[in-house]
Every structure is written in structure tokens, then in C-alpha cells.
Amino acid sequence: MFPACIEGYFFAFFSKIRYIIDIMKTPHSFLDLGSVFDELFDAAHQFCNDFEYTDCYPGFSYPPMNVFLTEDKSLTFEFALAGFEEKNISLSFSGDYMIFSAAIEDSSVSKATSVSEAAGSGSAVNVHYLKRRLKLKNIEKQKYYVPVDKYAHEKVRAVFKNGILKVTIPPRPEKTQGQGISITIITEA
Question: What residue ranges do the domains of the chain occupy?
């Protein structure tokens, strides 16, 4: 059901839980809950750190994005990339993963920093933001699961319009099985 490496980590994690339960069942034993929870959280943290990508479509908070299937079973990604230029966006496939990167130009980043030019004087002044939600930053090698046996990587279509990058990967055609061959069974005498 799971790859062998994941099963090993599940076993290690749940063996720690079993150890805690065994300690709790032992009569007259002292249970240090602090160390028990430390061990449990360390095991969970180690489990998460050992896998670079545990989610097929990770919840990256930046850039905002949608992932959905269309009626024809095409896998579609929509990335909100306001402030980015098409020439600085990179998409590629490596095995079963689509790798997405984007770089913001230095001139765009300097506009978003805490220093801006005063109107007409040409000198720099400090800016005090009352609310700052638009933070432009580079996006480096985000990976998204797109299995090569189910989707035609070579037919990907990416459209960048009005700050939205829409990437559509069509499904591979399903292999149809023929009628088959009928076999007649005879009886030998």
C-alpha cells in the first residue's frame, strides 16, 4: 500500500506510541509526560523532515494557486503571478513532477521595499506601511505531482494572461483492450 521507506517510518513512529502505551500499563511506574511528548513530537518532526514532498499538491502559500480537473480529465494549475514577467517564469518536468520557478526582477522588488522616491524631488524617503499584503518574492523549484503514465507531459499548454499563469496538462489516452480471443475447449477421447 505504501512504499517501503514510508512503511519503515510509520513503524518507527507507531512503535514510539506503543512504547508509551506499555509504560502507562505498567503498575507503579512513573510517567514523565514531558519527555514522552518530546519523543513523540521529535518522531513526528523527523518523519515529516525525511520526506521532501509528502503531498501531491502541496499547500504552498505563495503564490496563490488552484489545482483542478476539467471535464475532459485534464489537470489544470492556476498560479496568481501579479508583478512577474513571462520571461522570468520557468516550468519543466522531471519524472512525475512539474517543477515551477519564477523570479521577480530587481526593479520590481525595489518598488516593494520600504524605500521609495519622493514625488518630484528624486530623493529617497522612508515609507511606513499601514497595511502590506503585496510582498513580491522569488519562487524557487516548487514541485507538483503530475504522473507521467496518466498525463501527457509533452502536450502541456501554459498561458500567461493578466497575471494568471494557467497550466493545462491533458490526460494520456486510455489504452482500450480489444474484444479478446475466444478459445474453444475440446474434449479428447
Answer: 4-49, 59-103+138-174, 107-134
